[in-house]
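Sharing in case it's useful to others searching the archive later.

Someone asked me privately for the predicted structure of Methyltransferase FkbM domain-containing protein, so I'm posting the question and my answer publicly. Question first, with the sequence:
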Amino acid sequence: MIDKNNSNSQIKNDWLLDYRKKVTSQFGEDGIIEKIFSIIGETNKWCVELGALNGVHDSNVWDLLNNKGWSGVLIEADITNYKKLQALYEGKKNIACVNEFVSFEGEHSLDKIFSHTQIPKEFDLLSLDIDGNEYHLWESLVNYSPRVAIIEFNPSIPNDIDFVQPRDMNIFQGSSLLSLFRMGKQKGYELVCVVGVNAIFVKKELFPMFGIKNNSPESLYTDKSAYTRLFQLYDGTLVLSGCDTLLWHKKKIRSEDIQIVPRRKRYYPAKIDERKVIRSLKDTVRRLPLYPLLLKFRNWRFYG
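And my answer, the predicted structure tokens:
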């Protein structure tokens, strides 16, 4: 249970952020993981990290494996990183290093990969970080059930947008926090913390132990620094607000590059243009059946 003497834990929904501590993790997940398991307890001390890299860089499980006696399955597709990972844990029978390009089904699915290891069906921690298909891979995990799941999301997508990238391992876009929040509920999980680009979930039966009254994405994730907003003006001008950089390409987003209507053609359609009204009236008059007669009358009057 949460510390009842800690007033922050009773007031703030995002109180777990107070326990951020970085050993090897990117955003302080090490400390948050430690706090979560101090509340819910450990069962078998098994963890999985997909996107393990070299086993150290930005790892959410290095501390568990090396300092807390956990066992694990570490999956890395890149052969160079995998060799470093393998060397790091050489001779440790409780740690399985797998060089695999994971897919959603078949021989390369997470379910199938896990079946070749000693990991229990219900293990303690899952960490997914592969820069894109986390949503679909988590969805595809059916036969195994982690008690805690750390899932990467795309922080540039606002909290009110339910975006899921295509189910294609060759596409790297990322999905929104809201989409993962809803997926979590479908799979029986509740969001307890958002740190950096990672959403941390626990099984719904464990959620009451955290005393979080509102675990919506808007409540637990308030960092909008990566948001790029676009709005339009009456005359057709598009305006950018917020982050003006392509975050993963380090290129500036220029307002002039996204305009649909050229500057010379921008106007407010509802405003009356006197010249257009006059031209329209003239065209209407010219189409009248009596117009030729009126033209003759005008010529007779002025020229005799």
